Amino acid sequence: MAIVRRLAPSLGLTLGGLVLGAAASLALSSGTLGAATTSTPRCTTAGLSVIQNLSGSTVISVTVGNIPAACGGAVLQAALNNGTTNATGSVTVAAGGGSATVVLGTAPARQLADEVDLVFVGP
Amino acid sequence: MDLPVTHVGPTVTDTTTPTRRLERLRPGRRLVAAVIAGVLTFSVVYGLAASLSLTSDSLGAATTTVAACQAATLNATYTSTYSATSPGYTVGTVTVTGLAATCYSKPYKITLSGAASASLGESTGTTPASGTSFSAAFAPAVSAASVTAVNLVISG
Is the complex ipTM higher than 0.90? Predict the structure, then answer.
């Protein structure tokens, strides 16, 4: 008992110190945070053939060939720019790829040099 | 008046207790002993006062988990439009599908990136309070040929 009486003050100080240590912790909560990155794949990097289909002196459609099967189901958009005006159209590529013809919304006059832009979107 | 007394004779070992010895001192010497004891005591107190002074800045720490608002996969689709000024096809809208209710009404940011992960354009907004998809517009539109990745963050 004498030992307990002697140690009691020290014990009290120790416990007090522990309580003080606990009071130093912070309350913390967090909102949600989610992030992700994914690559935007290409269904093909191969060369495609492009043929302008004429009706008289105007371009009415564009036929794209050598489309791989990986592009099957994608929407093929094509734009023809003759330097003065442009026309666009789109078509869904058949499963298995192959070729697809995009009918243009308007028929630009053919020129010695036209620019044709293509994009596959999806699936 | 007390006269000083000189002890003459053989040396005798004193075996009495300190208290007894103090009682045997004359009153004047007791006073001197008390003064000496007081000086010693206050010297100890003075020694304690020489200890260092220490203060502390606050320090608090805690850890919590940062979770995503949903585990299900989101899917990004693109709306491309021909631009004669580019010229070529550009992406003006990215539509994200697969949104879960746990991600409703939260801030989002979508970044389209290209070579070397460089940002090509960003779109920010708040996810809808219903439905499973939302669309983010990019102004100016981003060259479709340059896009190699899409990055999405939803927080809140």
Answer: no
